Amino acid sequence: MFNKQEDRISSQQTIKQANSKLVFKLIDQHDGISRAQIANITKLSPTTISSLTEELLTKELVHEIGTKIVRSSGRRPILLDVNEKGACFICMDLQQRGYYLGIYNLKCQLISGQLYNLDNYDELGKSLVATSKQLLKKEKISKDKLLGIAIGAPGIIDESHKRVLSSTIIPITENNLFYEQLIKNFPLCQIELVNESSLAAYAEIVFVNEIRHLRNLLYIDIHTGIGAGIIIDGNIYRGPHNLAGEFGHISIDIRGPLCKCGAKGCLEMLSSIPAINKKLPKYTLQEIQSRYDELYMDVTVVVNKSAKYLAYGINNAVNLLNPEAVIIGGQITIFGQKYLSEVIKVFKEISLGQNKDLPILLSQVEGNAVTLGGARYLLDRILIR
Ligand SMILES: [Zn+2]
């Protein structure tokens, strides 16, 4: 039997929660906004706004930042802003030989971050817990200020069960209990495990001025492997089994080299950093980069071929998804604008109609894009959406 009173209370709580998120979102979007402005935009009553902002102030998620100078005489309204010190997020980027871990404040600004080596990936959970605690202590942040933890991982992820199912980059198995160890030590936290390319894509569309007005983006992450982050209507898209964005396994040449996935001529076999290294074994990546800059023929042929294959891969994805922009990120960006120009040149030759004018850009996020994207992802999921 339904309990009408309980139903009513729970729906009132849902409405209150949604309104509170709306108020926080507006405060986050403005550099100082008054209660009256919030009431005006939301069409909620001044009393409701007053009570919602009071609650956010009590939780220290927002603070008052003084008054606004207005032309008309009368009382100057007090402005509200996000209190960057009110809470924090810990974000991790799992890498081949360890991980990068950063603490971000409520404005998604990096407080402190560091790269940690890991000799044994089975120790991941233990190490993540220990470094998180150390960093909180070092920055004198109490544990109750930690709202969420985001982990960006390369590979196929079961996001609902917080498992990395498989990865060609990190030596991790489905049985790795790092999530359990984190939740045991940080039980009040929201912990999210997300594909690293998706988080990097999220950072790009949220923080890069040139593209932040866009809603649909294809982000291509090229390093040891090749992955893609797909943003559709402002949200990360991974598909029902978290398998969308396996861009490295789009086959470009069915007569090409055999890939570990079983197919031939996958983009990962043709355009990735190891694909370039394999063709130029006598040089380090730095040497390849400087020889590419200096127009040495042997290197130019190989690197431009990687760009050409990539352009074909981008064209396939663009024909399917029709994004508003394509971003190329990851280690490949060491080849800079010259590599990008080569990609664009080939893309223009093979793309359809209006797609020829599609912006294809290098990643512009500074610092670790995965953890920055993770911080914003947590902020949006916990306090805004
Ligand atoms: Zn493959």
Features:
single chain; 385 residues; Arc Repressor Mutant, subunit A; Nucleotidyltransferase, domain 5; five-stranded mixed sheet; binds zinc ion
Summarize the structure.
By secondary structure, the chain is α/β, with parallel strands linked by helices.
Describe the model.
The protein has 385 residues and is of the alpha/beta class. The chain has three domains: 4-82, Arc Repressor Mutant, subunit A (Orthogonal Bundle), CATH 1.10.10; 88-199 and 369-384, Nucleotidyltransferase, domain 5; 209-362, Nucleotidyltransferase, domain 5 (2-Layer Sandwich), CATH 3.30.420. Helices cover 41% and strands 21% of the residues. A hairpin with a 4-residue loop joins strand 8 (156-158) and strand 9 (163-166). The protein binds zinc ion. Zinc ion binds at residues 249, 259, 261, 263, 266, 268.
Tell me the count of domains.
3
Indicate the percent of residues in helices. 40-55%
CATH evolutionary superfamily of the largest domain: ATPase, nucleotide binding domain
Question: Would you tell me which CATH topology of the largest domain applies?
Answer: Nucleotidyltransferase, domain 5
The major beta sheet can be summarized as: 5 strands, mixed
The unique ligands bound to this protein are:
zinc ion
Radius of gyration of CA atoms, rounded to a whole number? 24 Å
Any idea what the shape is? Answer: globular
Structural class: alpha/beta
Q: What is the mean pLDDT?
A: 93
Major beta sheet, strand line-up:
6-5-4-7-10
Span from first to last CA? Answer: 31 Å
> Under the CATH scheme, which class of the largest domain?
Alpha Beta
* CATH architecture annotation of the largest domain: 2-Layer Sandwich
What's the total helix number? 12
